[in-house]
From TrEMBL:
It comes from Agromyces indicus. Pfam families: SpoU_methylase, SpoU_sub_bind. PANTHER family: RRNA METHYLTRANSFERASE 3, RRNA METHYLTRANSFERASE 3, MITOCHONDRIAL. This is RNA methyltransferase. InterPro entries: Alpha/beta_knot_MTases, Ribosomal_eL30-like_sf, rRNA_Methyltransferase, SpoU_MeTrfase, SpoU_subst-bd, tRNA_m1G_MTases_N.
Length: 267
C-alpha cells in the first residue's frame, strides 16, 4: 500500500491538476468512482495507473472486477495519499491517471455526423464539461472545442462531464473557420445560439432542426462576436418566458441540442 503523501509518485500524480504537467506528459487526472468506471468500461486502454483506498474498493467491488477484466492493476493507497493526489476535496476513494485522447477534427466530420456541438472560446470548466455531458445524453456525434477554449483535460471539465468524455469523440485546438468549413462539407447546417437570434420555436416550425446540424456556442461572458455570428447559416436564441435575467450557457446548449435530437428522431 502506498502511504506516504509526500512521495515523488504522489506528487507526480497531483501535478496533473495543472496544465503544464498535462502538456508535458500527455496524461490527465481522473477522480471518483463514476468517472473511473466509465473509463474502465469504454476506454480501458487509456488507464495508465489506478489508485483506490481499501474502503472504496470494498464499497465499489464492481470497479475492481472491471479493472481485472480490463487488465488494469489497482494499487491500494491510504486516505491521506488519495487526498494528496486528488484535485477535489472529496475524491470518493478513486484516482486514475489516463492518456489524453483527443479526436482529429477531420475524423469528426468524416463519419458523416448529424449532430455536433462546437464550443468557441468557452472558458468555464463547469460549462464545458456539462455541455459535453448534454451532447452525450442528446445522442450527439461529437463535440469540438475551438479557439482559446478551456483545456478539455482540466479536472473540473472532466468531473463535470461525469464520464461522457469517454463516450463520444471530442476534438480540441481547432480554428472555428476550418471547423465550420468541414461541417458544411459534411452537409451540416450551422446554427449559432445567441441572444441576437430568431426564436428557437421559429426554427422548429420551419423544420430547420430536423436537418443535420452543427450547433455553435460562444463564450459565457461575451457570447459570439458579430464576425463569428456571420459565419453561421442561422442565429437562434432560446426564449425566456419568465423573469430570469439570462440563461446559463450549459443550460441553453442543452435545450438546443435536445431540440435537435427530438426533431431529428421525430422525423
Amino acid at each position: 500500500m502506498l502511504e506516504n503523501p509526500r512521495s515523488p509518485r504522489v506528487r507526480a500524480v497531483a501535478k496533473l491538476a495543472k496544465k503544464p504537467a498535462r502538456v508535458e506528459t500527455g496524461m490527465f487526472l481522473l477522480e471518483g468512482p463514476q468517472a473511473v468506471a466509465e473509463a474502465l468500461t469504454f476506454r480501458p486502454q487509456l488507464v495508465v495507473e489506478l489508485y483506490a483506498t481499501p474502503t472504496a474498493l470494498e464499497r465499489y467491488s464492481d470497479i475492481g472486477d472491471t479493472a481485472i477484466d480490463a487488465g488494469v492493476d489497482v494499487e491500494y493507497v491510504s486516505e491521506e495519499v488519495l487526498n494528496a493526489m486528488a484535485d477535489t476535496v472529496t475524491p470518493q476513494g478513486f484516482v486514475a491517471v489516463c492518456h489524453q485522447f483527443p479526436t482529429a477534427v477531420k475524423d469528426v466530420f468524416a463519419s458523416k455526423p448529424t449532430l455536433v456541438a462546437i464550443l468557441e472560446e468557452v472558458r468555464d470548466p463547469g460549462n464545458a464539461g456539462t455541455i459535453v455531458r448534454a451532447a452525450d445524453a442528446a445522442g450527439a456525434d461529437a463535440v469540438v472545442f475551438t479557439g482559446r477554449a478551456v483545456d478539455l483535460y482540466n479536472p473540473k471539465v472532466v468531473r463535470s462531464s461525469t464520464g461522457s468524455i469517454f463516450h463520444l469523440p471530442v476534438a480540441v485546438g481547432a480554428e472555428l473557420e476550418d471547423v465550420l468549413a468541414r461541417a458544411r462539407e459534411a452537409g451540416l447546417t450551422v446554427l449559432a445560439a445567441d441572444v441576437k437570434g430568431d426564436d428557437l420555436l421559429s426554427a422548429r416550425r420551419e423544420g430547420l432542426l430536423e436537418r443535420p446540424t452543427a450547433w455553435l456556442f460562444g463564450n459565457e461572458a461575451r457570447g459570439l462576436p458579430d464576425d463569428k455570428l456571420a459565419l453561421a447559416d442561422r442565429v437562434v436564441t432560446v426564449p425566456i418566458y419568465g423573469h430570469a435575467e439570462s440563461m446559463n450557457l450549459a443550460t441553453a446548449a442543452s435545450v438546443c441540442l435536445y431540440e435537435s435530437a427530438f426533431a431529428q428522431r421525430d422525423r
